[in-house]
Amino acid sequence: MLAYFLLLACAVSLAAQESLTLTHDSGAPVYIFRHPDAFGNDWRNQRFTAPIDGQLIGAYFCFGGRSDEFTTGTPKPVWQVWSGDTSGLPVTSLGTLEHPTTIPIAYHHLDSTWVDSLAPWTYTDLSSMSLAFSTGDEFHIGYSLVNPEPGDSLAILADRGNPETDYASEWSGGAFHFLFESWRGVNLFLRAEYLPASASATPHLLLPDRIALRAYPNPFNTSTRIEWSAITAPANASLHDLLGRRVQTWSLAPNTNHLTFDARGIAAGRYYLSLTTTSSSASIPLLYLK
Q1: What percent of the chain has pLDDT over 90?
Q2: DSSP string, 221-240
Q3: Which structural domain, as residue segments, surrounds residue 34?
Q4: Based on CB atoms within 10 Å of each CB, which residue in 14, 72, 256, 261 is the most buried?
């Protein structure tokens, strides 16, 4: 398949810090694919084409569920990237990454029918994999679960793929197959963040925010205090787990410069606290140890 055709089909947006977001989905969800599913399918992934020499630095995933019925338990995701060839399917693994840094973000609006308590999108930092590509190279980004327990499931949204496309595939019966073979073409809500070799900056999501957050203690075993420079406008804070599920929210009055988070009553683990105003935002990872 010609790289030129793929480049036209793949919507590319230039971010403020010169990173590119590569996407195929329409932003209008129609399907939701659960993992694990009843058929034993695994490693759902999406194919992208490098628009220019550069490096894959991250990926956006939209995991959702109506009333959270499809994303349940405490699934532990693992990400994998493959090279591609003229078949359009994944060929050679370029590496896997378990429990990477993830940041829940309001990247694209989705109504509550689909996401409920889940953050609309989760950004996953893949820069540590050091994956460089040349113009026209094909690569695939996919996900699975690490040793899922009974009740653990993770579901990704997808559109109808109109016109029908062959970007999405999955591992089934010992081989990769296009999703359109069963679903007449879908695009997973999975986007790639790509940094051209000519760019002089790191990706915009990873740059320091205007708001500097500090948490002490961190790690913590009961509560922690998050501080920042006083903000004159109202602000909102939210706590999400690594899958982007919203755990708690706060509405903050003008000139507030801290909040105390009492973690009793929630599971131990890694979380992200995000602080947002009308003009700026920041996130900080938190580690809760019981």
Answers
A1: 27
A2: SSEEEEE----SS-EEEEEE
A3: 3-204
A4: 261
